[in-house]
Specification:
- The protein is elongated.
- By secondary structure, the chain is of the alpha/beta class.
Amino acid sequence: MEKPVIAIPIGDPAGVGPEIVAKALDSQTVKDLADCIVIGDRRIMEQAIRITGAGLKVNVVDSPDKMDKAEGVLNLIDLENIDMDKFEFGKVQAMCGQAAYDYIAKSIEITMAGQADAVATTPINKEALHAANVPFIGHTEIFGKLTGTENPLTMFETNGLRVFFLTRHLSLLQMLGQIKKDAIVSCAKECIKALKRLGVTEGTMAVAGLNPHCGEHGLFGWEEVTEIEPAVKQLQAEGYDVAGPIGADSVFHQAVQGKYNSVLSLYHDQGHIATKTLDFERTISITNGMPILRTSVDHGTAFDIAGKNIVSEVSMVEAIRLAAKYAPNFKK
């Protein structure tokens, strides 16, 4: 059976991205699951291989169809965009911010063209992007623009727990203003559509509560009564398999146990705390709602340990694994 082709941009070269790519592609798990095409700089990747001791040899190609799929080969599209005389680990550098953007753009280009089946991304640095005058604050915004997607949808997955987010990068005060019936209905429908595209067609989505004990009918807050419950009832009336609101102190545990196929978290930390406490290294971000599938490690560039062969590749391996798992369904 032919393995899916996963495009992997190496992220900010000054961070741990190149190291986790080298370590992950040297793992038997990845070798068994996917054929990977790396997008980066040859000298940076050769350096990462030396640092990590990975048993890999770089093979430079200009497209995925030229890959050498032999054991121990790291196939690389070399953009040659790092000046090694100026390069430093663990530093915010405009050169590295621009390079990171270029790697992502190339990975999107080849995947949109059907040459790769999904993209698994590595960490980038917002300050470095800014220093390079790249007009985006992160991966999601870049993918949205370059794939023509207005509102990419983020889902976290770890150990079978899937979590969507109604709101993300807002203060708690701002978030409260977004807990509205229509917003919940619209978001839940998009989440269920995304699950179906990934091949998850069975099971119930749970909508998390906002207040302690879901507000106890107004004792601790009215959002459940005025916005969340009406949203769930409307969804159910329209035929969607949705339950809630379910207290946030129990809903994630119930989903892990298999009662729900996913949870709609109402705000950033509600879902992040649940997934990362369950398994920090294996919490993977999956961007839905785009023409292509993207998975990502959910950790940063770790400038403080870059170049020291300290970083774990577990999250990168898991990001590739989920990309390979969902790619066949996503393409249907």
